Amino acid sequence: MIEVAELTKRYGSTVALGGVGFSVPPGSVTGLLGPNGAGKTTIVKILLGLVRQDTGRALIHGERYRDLTAPLRTVGALLEAGCAHRGRTARRHLRWLARSNRIPLSRIDAVLEQVGLPDRAARARISAFSLGMTQRLGLAAALLGDPDVLVLDEPVNGLDAEGIIWLRSFLRRQADQGRTVLVSSHLMTEVARTADRLVVIGGGRVLADLPTDELIERYARPGVRVTARDPARLAAVLRGAGWEVRPLPDGALSVTGATAGQVGDLAGRHRIVLESLGGTSGSLEDAYLDLVARADNPPPPASPPSSAPATPRPSTATLPPSSAVTPRKDSR
Amino acid sequence: MTLRLPSPGLMPVLRSELTKIGTLRSCTASLAALFVTCTALGAVSGWSVRRAVDRGSSVVRPDFDPEAAGLAAVAYGQFALIVFGVLIIGHEYSSGMIRLSLTAVPRRGVFYTAKLLAGAGAALAVALPSVFLGYLATQAGLGAHGTTLSAPELPRAMAGAVTYLVLTTVLCAGIAGAVRSPVAALAVLTPLYFLVSQLLMTVEATAWFARYLPDQAGFRMFAVGADLPVDPGEAASLSPVLGLAVLVAWTCAAVAAGMLRLRRLEL
Questions:
Q1: Domain limits of chain B?
Q2: Where is the composition biased (Low complexity) (chain A) (predicted)?
């Protein structure tokens, strides 16, 4: 059980966290989601006692991290890469870690096997490791004390496709066994596949705290995906009719809130040739972008209702490219 | 699922810190370097002095003291422990491992204490044979011009040399913690120990001050024979006990600075 309440943190005049609160119940995977710089890592570090909050509480099983006896046996933490000295072998790295919390050294072999680091690799210096192997070693370190709480900051980073699939089912298993799992990520589709619940952070505040399905339902708006011979003209016509139109990377247009019939009708009246037309069921990505955009640019109170759909989108530089794919959770 | 054990306390952390030292090549190499420097340098310098004396060379000082010569290599060997002291804390900062270390041991005072104790223990374990065998190697090199282990001041001087090396290790670890970087720590300590202190000692106007520097004060702990102060008021000569006191004060200050910086650390 993780409990975060009224957490605030300032760095100079910058407010990193402005009163964040959420809880992670046991037996579930909770995704901590937000663009880079939203405050996810700060929350994780406060939870682990690496950063001191200005006000508020961050408790694990009702205790502050630093008050835990043998914390590695209670909490398994994965911080962003680079927490190991590259001159040690993986096995020796895990050895000092095990000794610090009186963890039997036999756990080292167990966790190395669990994360799929072969024995040959475990005897090599960490400097020879790929990013994916370093990440697996970090996970091995997190699992060393057989903890019942897992706090993983950006665990997908650096993992190859095989590793990502492994991690998903691994996290699922951990939660099904009753563990408390908190996973932070800026990749929302990745988190949505595994998380039962999503806490969306933006600008140091909680923007949403909902079960994943409900978040999609509430914030993702269905729309239409359309391709035309003259997309620029179609876009102008659709916008003229008051729809929110967004060009997609493949040249298609995404029309939020419209139905295929409405778009087809409009195109026909303006004699625009359509190449394809189909409805989409709104993606989590859209929901996420929408949430973050609203947090960045709260709508001015005096804005005329006709221009309502013209919500500015955040730069895609900090976010993964948009796609109209609705993420589905893997089979449980 | 969580195994509740009695508070881990200091012992497991101490063992963990010793494991860190033993599994890092640069740490074990610097410890080995102390032993090699003390014994090899002692033997070679003793041998070269014997040859010089046998040939009637005038380069040997008339007040040459074989006892003092037996401990002279410590002044060179200390560099190995300066590096070692810097490494035990510095490598945590430079590799980013400190985040994981503090996750494993969130009580920073316990972490820091265990680290310094482990460093001091390792330094002691290597300094003892290095000083003793270094002394014997020098006497062996000197041959007939050497002395025995029976000199009355010798136990005090040897204990002084070992204590000096251990305190220097801790002092350097504290400095590395204060500047949070092995490179920055060595950039401060190397010139201080090998340039500034000797330079200030030779300039008469600054010698009164330079004798309170950690190395010059510490050297008094293992001064013997001709090097011992005759006149307590004379510049550049603290008594062995006063030398110890001054070095301990420096070490405490460095340790406190390192602790303060660790307490304030936000990762």
A1: 10-263
A2: 308-326
Q: Identify which of A65, A82, A146 has the shortest CB distance to residue B106.
A: A65
d(CA A4, CA A2): 7
CATH 3.40.50.2000 fits A2-217, yes or no: no
Selected from 3.30.2280.10, 3.40.50.300, 3.10.450.50, 3.30.70.120, the CATH number assigned to the domain covering A221-282 reads 3.30.70.120
Tell me the pLDDT tens digit for each residue of B9-31: 899 999 999 999 999 999 999 99
Q: Are strands A197-202 and A205-211 parallel, antiparallel or unpaired?
A: antiparallel
| DSSP-assigned states of every residue in B9-75 | -HHHHHHHHHHHHHT-HHHHHHHHHHHHIIIIIHHHHHHHHHHHHHTT-S-S-TT--HHHHHHHTHH
- Give the residue on B whose Cα is nearest the Cα of A9: B266
Indicate yes or no: CB of A50 within 8 angstroms of CB of B102. Answer: yes
Measured between beta carbons, the chain B residues lying within 8 angstroms of A77 are 103
Residue A74 with chain B: CB contacts under 8 Å: 2
Identify all chain A residues contacting B104, using CB atoms and an 8 Å cutoff.
71-72, 97, 100-101
For the segment B184-242, what is each residue's pLDDT rounded down to a tens digit? 999 999 999 988 888 888 887 888 888 899 998 899 898 886 555 544 445 457 888 99
Hey, is the C-beta of A328 within 8 angstroms of any chain B C-beta? no
Backbone φ and ψ for A4, nearest 5 degrees, come out as -120, 130
Q: A41 contacts in B (CB within 8 Å)? A: none
Distance from CA of B39 to the nearest CA of A (A): 28
Q: How far is CA B40 from the centre of its chain?
A: 18
Helix (H) or strand (E) holding B170: helix B154-179
User: What ipTM was reported for this prediction?
Assistant: 0.86
Q: How does strand A149-153 pair with strand A75-78?
A: parallel
Domains in chain A: boundaries = 2-217, 221-282
In this model, does residue A281 exceed pLDDT 80? no
